[in-house]
Design a protein that fits this description.
alpha/beta; two-stranded antiparallel ribbon
Length: 139
Amino acid sequence: MRSILLVEADSITCDAWSAAVIASGHSVITASGMREAWGVVRDGGIDAVVIAAYEPHAGVAELAQHMNALPDAPPIILVSASPAAPILSVRIHAAAFVPKPCDPEEVVMAIERLLWRVRPLMVDMGGEDEPTIEMRQLA
């Protein structure tokens, strides 16, 4: 189970996304704005951040800049209908971009694709009592 931070101001959309992410087997933390999100990310333990951005200048770039300065920064998935969103997603080094309107399942698929890139793999070391965990980057 991974911890996913959902940053979405609209409570109905946030509830729908939360339900879908929880149904996929992950835990969810929600934030309604960028300041609240930064507090959660700064505390640690987040595996991915999904940010809904209605306006490119709504603090997303600042949040991403703070996050990217962290040693173990969680990857960002940007979700937006703004015409400037694809450029913003590149500028903030987002790992994925989901255009709105979208179904909650599309957000979950983006999370799953992102989390699939780096998974702990159990490796049998031939005779040791306990297997070791190896992180492998998948292309």
